Amino acid sequence: MKIFIDTANLDKIKEVNSWGILDGVTTNPSLVAKENTDFRTLVGEICKLVDGPISAEVMSTKAADMVAEARELAKINRNVVIKVPMTEEGLKATKTLANEDIPVNMTLIFSAAQALLAAKAGARYVSPFVGRLDDIGQDGMKLISEIMNILDNYDFDTEVIVASVRDPIHVVEAAQLGAHIATIPYDVLKKMFNHPLTDNGIKKFQDDWAKVPKKP
Known about the structure:
This protein is α/β, with parallel strands linked by helices. The chain has helices at 10-18, 29-33, 39-49, 63-74, 88-99, 112-121, 130-135, 140-153, 168-176, 186-192, 196-211, and strands at 2-6, 24-26, 54-57, 80-85, 104-109, 125-128, 159-162, 181-184. It has a single domain, classed as Aldolase class I (TIM Barrel), CATH 3.20.20.70.
């Protein structure tokens, strides 16, 4: 499973990229707003850091405007993926962009039916938001299972990006279901490699090593 980081913060991207496990980056308007930096400049800087898909979201609501916006974003770097919301206008824009070989990440997916429509329209990625479904008492990972089953039945090139990840359990369950990608916040990524037994084991090894006789 590929791992993306869900942030627009350059320092966090640099750190996680240094671990050697990062395959891409997703951003959204809320994440970009936190950085107080020109959007296009920020996307360009992210593309310099990570050689993988970098999702940048359009803000228009009409298909023609989404397409025009997407074409400009695509000029920033070959790795830019256009995030388009799951709406009727978004589907129209996705079809046009797919025909122009501009990859689309259709976002704000909350049902298997939406994911199917996105795949039919030519979306390169679909982003189901599991955490937001959990927040309203639904089973976000059940949706991932449904989408994976549908995509496995047909010859779609669409990949599933498990989004709105709240904890490492979401990541593990996504991997067990065969999801192609999880896009993970920085804080959750940090939790993934931390475990008290690992820390205790390291301390014990260091304490024991200190007792080993050393040549003068």
